[in-house]
């Protein structure tokens, strides 16, 4: 079965750029999706199809892909960006595989 | 506006049952695959069950197979998850999710996934 690997935590200073990676063989053939989850809230999709941004999501969020690694980039990080971020993708029969999640801290 | 509203969570004893519902609005419910994803306290996300359009395909994770049943009512825009023989390890927030990926033969079309706010299921004696 496929596995997606994310760093458990990333720290960034306010106004700087945060990059969160997600790696796995699945990503070489399937698009990645990214979720933002704040404490006590439901998840919110911030990137789909590797780099597409849903309507209403800040342009500070962007996604990119290279081989078996995808990257979520948050430009000009703000305190409000502090959250858990999950990557996921559709594997066989379009069934979802999730990364373990990355806690972003803005300090 | 797309909305997914879960209900039916609560406290159940080990071996008990619960039925989760998800009311969908703001989109054509019948043409999307729908998923239930859960998150145990302090843990990551896990796909529990999935149902494709026209009820043609259903998936269950190994951890719930034989105990949970997914169904949908396209006329009422409702998604269900019948949970039987509950275990302590089923304790989690359960999310109803619209899968934005629509496949037609070898062609895939990508739209946004939408997640509900979740409903908490607690299994405890």
Explain the overall architecture:
- The model of chain A has no long low-confidence stretch (mean pLDDT 96).
- Chain A has no helices and 9 strands.
- The termini of chain A are far apart.
- Chain A is globular.
- In chain A, strand 5 and strand 6 form a beta hairpin.
- Helix content of chain A is 0%, strand content 45%.
- With 107 residues, chain A is mainly β.
- With 125 residues, chain B is mainly beta.
- Chain B is 0% helix and 53% strand.
- Chain B has no helices and 13 strands.
- In chain B, the strands form 3 sheets. In chain B, strands 2, 4, 5, 6, 9, 12 and 13 form a 7-stranded mixed beta sheet that branches. Chain B has a 4-stranded antiparallel beta sheet with strand order 1-3-8-7, with no helix packed on it.
- Chain B is globular.
- The termini of chain B are far apart.
- Chains A and B meet through strand 7 and strand 8 of A and strand 5 and strand 12 of B.
Q: Which features characterize this protein?
A:
heterodimer; A: 107 residues; mainly beta; 6-stranded mixed β-sheet; 3-stranded antiparallel β-sheet; 45% strand; B: 125 residues; 7-stranded mixed β-sheet; 4-stranded antiparallel β-sheet; 13 strands; 0% helix
**Mean pLDDT, all residues of chain A:** 96
β-strand percent of chain A reads: 35-45%
Major β-sheet profile of chain B:
7 strands, mixed
Continuous helix count of chain B = 0
Helix content of chain B: under 10%
Low-confidence segments of chain A, given as residue ranges, are none
Radius of gyration of chain B: 14 Å
Indicate the percent of residues in helices of chain A.
under 10%
User: Regions of chain B with pLDDT < 50 over 5+ consecutive residues?
Assistant: none
* End-to-end distance of chain B: 40 Å
Q: For the CA atoms, what is the radius of gyration of chain A?
A: 13 Å
Mean pLDDT value of chain B? 96
- Morphology of chain B: globular
Q: Give, in order, the helices and strands of chain B.
A: EEEEEEEEEEEEE
- Count the E strands of chain B: 13
Topology of chain A as a string of helices (H) and strands (E)? EEEEEEEEE
- Count of DSSP strands of chain A: 9
């Amino acid at each position: 079965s496929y596995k997606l690997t994310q760093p458990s935590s990333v720290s960034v200073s306010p106004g700087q750029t945060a990059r969160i990676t997600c790696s796995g063989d699945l990503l070489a053939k399937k698009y990645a999706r990214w979720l933002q989850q704040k404490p006590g809230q439901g998840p919110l999709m911030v990137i789909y199809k590797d780099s597409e941004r849903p309507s209403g999501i800040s342009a500070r969020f962007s996604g990119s892909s290279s081989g078996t690694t995808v990257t979520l980039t948050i430009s000009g990080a703000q305190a409000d960006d502090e959250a858990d971020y999950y990557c996921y993708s559709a594997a066989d029969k379009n069934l979802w595989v999730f990364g373990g999640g990355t806690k972003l801290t803005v300090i | 506006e797309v909305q997914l509203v879960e209900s039916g969570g609560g406290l159940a004893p080990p071996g008990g049952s619960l039925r989760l519902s998800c009311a969908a609005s703001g989109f054509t419910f019948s043409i999307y695959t729908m998923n239930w994803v859960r998150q145990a306290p302090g843990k990551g996300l896990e796909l529990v069950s999935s149902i494709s359009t026209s009820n043609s395909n259903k998936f269950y994770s190994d951890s719930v197979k034989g105990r949970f049943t997914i169904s949908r009512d396209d006329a009422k825009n409702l998604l269900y998850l019948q949970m039987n023989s509950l275990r302590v390890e089923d304790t989690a927030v359960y999310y109803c999710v619209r899968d934005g990926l629509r496949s037609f033969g070898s062609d895939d079309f990508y739209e946004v996934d939408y997640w509900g706010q979740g409903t908490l299921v607690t299994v405890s004696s």
